[in-house]
Amino acid sequence: TLPYCICLSLRLHDAPTALTVYCCRALDRCVQGCTMWMKPEEILLANALWVTEQSNGFFTLQRRKGHGTKGLSSVLVGTLDSVFDSKPAPYRILHRTPLSEVSYVVATSLSREEIFQNWAWIEQNLLETLKSFDSEDEATEFVCCKIRSLVAQREVSLPDVDQDNAQFRVNASRFATIFNLPRQEKLVNYYSCSFWKGRLPQQGWLYLSMQHLAFHSFLFGQTTRVLLRWTDITTLERSNNFLFPETIMVASRQKKHYFSMFTNIVETFALMEQLANLAMRQLISEETFEADQQLARKLSCNAPKKLPLLKRDLDARAQSETYRTTFRLPLDERLDGSLECCLWTPYNKQAVRGKLYLSPNYICFESRVKNLVCLVIPLRLLQVTEKVDSHNSLPNALLLTTRNKVNFLFAQIEGRDFLIEKISELLAKIPQPKEIPCPEDDSTSLASSSSSASWEPEASLASRFELPRSPEAQEAETQKEKQWEEHFAEYGRGLCTYRTSKAQELVLTGIPDSLRGELWMLYSGAIHELETHPGYYRKAVSESMGKRNATSEEIERDLHRSLPEHPAFQSPQGINALRRLLNAYAWRNPAIGYCQAMNIVASVLLLYASEEEAFWLLVALCERLLPDYYNTKVVGALIDQGVLEDLARDHIPELYTKLDSLGVLSMISLSWFLTIFLSVIPFESAVNIVDCFFYDGAKVVFQVALAVLEANQERLLSCKDDGEAMMVLCGYLENVHNPQAAICSRSTFQPTAGSKETVDISTLVYDSYSKYGFLTSNMIEKLRLKHRLSVVQGLQDANVKNVLRSLSLDPRISALLTQEELSDLVALIREQQLSQHSWGTGPPGVAPPNVDTGAPYGEQLFHLDMDQFLSFLSAMGPWSRGEHPRRLGVRLFRLADTDCDGWVSMAPWSRGEHPRRLGVRLFRLADTDCDGWVSMADFCRILAMSSRGDMDDRLRLLYGAHLAVCQPGDVEDAQRDSADDSPEQEGAEVATEAEEYFSSLEEGSSADQVLSSPAAEGSSAPSLQQQQQRMELLDAVLQRNRDSESFFGSASLSSSYGSGGDPSRYSSKSLDMTLPDMNQEQFVQMWQTVYNLFVGHPDEQDFYHALACTGTELLQMGEMNHEAKTKPDDPTGEHSGGDGTTDRETPRDSGATAATVSSDMWDRHWHISFQQFRACLHKDEHLASFFDTKTPVSSALEGLRSSRIQQRASSTPPLTGAIKV
């Protein structure tokens, strides 16, 4: 059976058509069963460390020595494989002819079954064909070509399979097996190194994956494993000393780990830094990593050596980030490739050697000599691309012409045709910018001064509110404008200007006010987003105007504090423009919203740029130039504070020691960095620093800060306390002036009293560049990485401490759970949330709610969704036995999820065959606002009461969980659980009858439960009244007093949760009386849950008998309550109890949060109280003993931690930490 491609390779051109068709079909069939074929590789020593299991004249099936055994050979071979990185698959098939000394590996496998399937296929399809060849060379050629075609056909038929080589896939599988990690954990690369265990190095392999750093060593039967999550690493350092040469130190919260003897320590450490940095960014922004699936298919003329796909992806991301930073490009721009070439510079008639960079929207060039020339050409402006072969001195030239008829000549391009092809391909994909439609604005602004719905963006406010200048200042301003005009004439103006060191010299002297907005837009890169998003700002303003929320109110408070000395912000025009700008950005980026200090920066931007330009400058500042600065935790500013400390330690060590002892650096850095010195230096002087900042990036703020500290070194060294040091620095900065600036309305510049001298801003900027201009963006970014680890980990630790402190202050929690148990519980929950976030296995499209920052930390930071809630419930709860324990869990979840957001805070009662049912009910009980989240505090209260509380606490949870409504998915889960019931479990007659009865009731009850659920009615959240009712129910169940008057005495609670409740019966003085009455449908569901708790219990029959008696008694009580209530007043039996209306006449409250009577099969006036339910269960000895049993939380936590480690390979991502064997 020879495919046509094989026929060609063997020069069998006369193969008939029928044979060709038949062979191609045969190839298709065989490819489907071949999973481990590999391109043939030559080997000389076929039997070294291998055992032959089967062989024939052309093929040999071998097994690795020691595989599957525990003898000496297994130890020796395992040690050699670990040290020399052979790590072969344990089974392989070789092709070898009788007279040849060379063998070819044609198939490998990790399992015996798969390799024997391949062996059977070879014997069936190849052996007879090979016997027909006259020479061994032809047979070998046939086999090699056959196997290659199988591999190629398999890659074509499986385009989504990773393009990593076979050896890497084997190692990735081994990595997942050794550390029991799930399939979501992707290996990036692995390196040979030594791990220092005590004083002895253990040679092995360092595995770097997306979420973990792992080490494995197998030497002479001894196994060493280390597994660390990137989010647990606090320090990464590379050092070289006598004891540990070329060593990488990795510090976690527990201890330090040392790795050395790397073959390529530079590459290894760079990848470790990148992965740790990525993990920290994910913690800050809560974004997941998505690999570039198109990377393996991208066309490249100078592709690097074969690397693992994820490693190539990460390298490409690092290069793209450097590319964007260098040329100030948008965040979504990704580098496509680069090549060496020359650029012809017309201003000096020279060819400058450098590198050309190509991305989907830009062509950029940077000279090899730093700052010599830089060029950015947007592809959207490109009109003509043509070859130029007429220049003998400029071979392989390429001419680019823009729409403005500006020509750019590149020469000495290797692979010019390939470059033209790529440019043509990218040009075809560039979309034309379209005006973003703006919805008609019928809303008004928050302030009365902006009551009109119509508005127009303001021009630069400095041009409208001009300030007077002295004659000398006006002359200097005119001279600077003339210099810039000459510069434009020589180097070009606009996006495609040649950026040279001459431009930097002009920027250092200060940009004239008339050109400041234009050049800020150019050098910051904001001009690109402005031109590619026409109409975006108008839409953002229209969407944000008139919206009242916490962010807009905070903006309103700060509007009149923004540059109040300038007349522009003493007028409605300036205030309204600032209001629109800040609200529009808050609408664009709700993750940041508004942060104090943004108003100061934005007001200065509005002075020199138009309103729309100022918006895009603010976007560039917050999202690219100063990332993570303006969030709620100012993480970026805290990181740069550490960077400043390191720079001060290295360059002004004596002063650093003094300031560190006084704690001054931490006091000054935030105010300096957040506003780019605008809040500490008079703004007319500080704008010169902003000029340099937009031109050179964030390194400017460090240069100026170091220059300021060095200029005041003598006075700072003589300071005795931090107050005196702050006075020195504040006095110096206030005396910085700009003699060429316009005179602000406050007055002419006057030195601060007590100051010795004034400082010219030009002198300060010049000193910062002359002394610290050697700082580069790469140096700053490396220092940021170092401190990003410590800052983010410090914030995480502080959050956990605040959560524990908040939980320990709750009397119900602290009385039942110890501090150690709370600490272990919070750690486990946090680890599981990190795992789900890292592997992307959390709720799809769902994020924790944005809780009010004024709420306690336990309410803000840690929330559980239903799956997390139920997983801990099933592992730790006493009421987890039975047939359908999920039901009560769902109800408890709904009880705790007071805002119905689908998230809560951990509880028990969920072992057994269906552990989710009870847990789901508990979740619904706690999810009062129906958003699918429950707070950590509520979860801990439920866990404490269910595991350590008394019998009344547990009965209150059980009772309240069945008053809370379940969502449609909860009902479906319950019905699915019922469908999966095994008849073998229905041992007792009473259990069988109860199961049949309850299953029939669910069919009639589910529909109306859905009707009373907000989610079923299409609403995203319950109304405020419904939330209040759910919160009252949860507070009554948890016996929690919110210090609100008559909080538990609301009549709405009784009328909403029971069909026959009497509001007069509920009083805030008796907490037991606050629980509403339960109707018949709710009671039947609750009793079904109770029955399920005892399925499989050793005393199952005794409990069923007790439940039958108790249930009968409660049913009779409900009927008596009905009769006692309806006979005196309403013989017809239609009185609902207490409100003078009938159930038939009263329309159903569609937003009610409890299940209501849903079918004619229910007695609409039957009801029981919690006191009756509690009394009946207390009477029975068996039931009282069961519900009074305490759960050892500490042992449950330890068991949960152990089970998570053992079950990492399961479908649910495990909890992982540091593991050493």
Automatic annotation (TrEMBL):
Residues 1002-1011 have a biased composition (Polar residues). Residues 444-455, 1012-1023 have a biased composition (Low complexity). One of its GO terms (molecular function) is GTPase activator activity. Residues 434-455, 971-1029, 1123-1156 are annotated as: Disordered. The keyword Repeat applies. Residues 980-996 have a biased composition (Acidic residues). Residues 1123-1148 have a biased composition (Basic and acidic residues). CDD domains: PH-GRAM1_TCB1D9_TCB1D9B, PH-GRAM2_TCB1D9_TCB1D9B. Residues 921-949 form the EF-hand domain. This is Putative ypt/rab gtpase activating protein. The lineage of its organism: Eukaryota, Metazoa, Ecdysozoa, Arthropoda, Chelicerata.
